[in-house]
Amino acid sequence: MNQLTVRSPYTGEVVDTLPMDDLVSLEAKLVIGYDIARSQQQRMSIPERVEVLERVAQLMGNRRSELGLLIAKEGGKPLTDALVEVDRAADGVRLCVEHIKVDVGSRIPIASNRMSAGRLAFTEKAPIGLVAAVSAFNHPLNLIVHQVAPAIASGCPVIIKPAPDTALSCAMFMNMLHEAGLPEGRGQILVTEAIDVAEALVTDSRLAFFSFIGSANVGWMLKNKLAPGVRCALEHGGAAPVIVCDDANYDKAIPALVKGGFYHAGQVCVSVQRVFVPVKQLDDFVERFVASVRTLKVGDPTLESTDVGPLIRVNEVARVKEWVELAVAGGAHCALGGQAISERVFEPTVLVNPALDALVSLKEIFGPVVCVYSYDQVDDAVAIANSLPVAFQAAVFTESIDTGLALSRALDASAVMINDHTAFRDDVMPFAGLRQSGLGVGGIPHTIEDMQIEKMTVIKSASLP
């Protein structure tokens, strides 16, 4: 069997290997998953699901250091942030438990006319069926939890395909699930770099639900190839805008924007990318912002002192460098950075007033680059912020509650953070890309709802009024 080799994005050294799947092993997994989904005898009760999820959350806590170091090694996320990801992932598992304990159906008030008399109608939550999930590299444990744990909570068997760059964290989590008591057929991992194998999973007619986290081009393409009747949720990226108002408190705003812009080297779908600042305050803002960015420590992600690590692949460094150079050639001022430190690391970069038709202004950078734009009227900044075909999370910094609420309503975004960066997220929150940024609503409670149906039973009885 072929092996997937997972390498450190910082050193290029081999972290570990995993056996890879082919079309034959995929078919075997689909047969197992579909048979479980169709079998009444193999259904897991809610108490059984709760027990498995509670045990795996405990295991994650026990192995926190091991999981965090693995995330840092294979994904390049600085260790401090990787450990936070482990904590958040374990909390996400617990959130699944909390939700399904109270996730009940309802009584339908049908006995309101003579035609419906003598009947009782109620709904119960039931698993939708076999789930296929395709995940991304940038949160190699937490994204897996967001796709797999809700499937288990919902009672659905799931086949998860992790990003090949960061498949080890997924494999470790799936092994922990089985150690916690989940039958192996209810949680299966598909390890592959082959497009035909991945596409065969996604397009199979035995699926009931498809969960995708990744690029818009791939997500929309796969959606168009789903078998009839397969439901889906797509989570893509954006180019998150921030409106800094003339009354903003820079002591609060700048640390938040630095964290939101350079967390995981900007490889976050709601990373701070476009910051709009009043023209009269531009110089002061840029000076203070750059001074704060300069303090970030760039380097080995396995060290607790590191703030910014590598990009996931060498070609991503080359791409980000090209985009920055094109922006500078088009008139942007590079206030900081702009160069590759190595073939794997790009230095934190601040661009001032790049052209609105530059790639850094139009597309998701997914690198450690923040663009700062000046504006005369806040309405102009909002118009530019809303001008792209992507829309996800946005932010506003102001000391006025009226201004904050007005701009929250004006910005095209599914969520607007007031006096916080665009990448803030609590896993109970709805998380939804709009327009080309995605389809459906993420967030653990919402994903559980997606993976269930509300099944109605109607009883006719002479004993009913």
Question: Which labels suit this protein?
Answer:
7-stranded mixed beta sheet, Aldehyde Dehydrogenase, Chain A, domain 2, 2 domains, Aldehyde Dehydrogenase, Chain A, domain 1, 6-stranded mixed beta sheet, alpha/beta, single chain, 15 helices, about 475 residues
What does this structure look like?
The radius of gyration is 24 Å and the shape is globular. The chain starts with a strand and ends in a 5-residue tail after the last strand. The model has no long low-confidence stretch (mean pLDDT 96). Helix 2 (46-62) packs across helix 6 and helix 9 (250-262) crosses helix 10. The strands form five sheets. It has a seven-stranded mixed β-sheet, with helices on both faces. It has a six-stranded mixed β-sheet with strand order 7-6-5-8-9-19, with helices on both faces. Strands 3-4-20 form a three-stranded antiparallel β-sheet. It has 15 helices and 20 strands. By secondary structure, the protein is an alpha/beta fold. It folds into two domains: 3-236 and 437-458, Aldehyde Dehydrogenase, Chain A, domain 1; 240-418, Aldehyde Dehydrogenase, Chain A, domain 2.
Task: Describe the structure in brief.
The chain has 465 residues and is an alpha/beta fold.
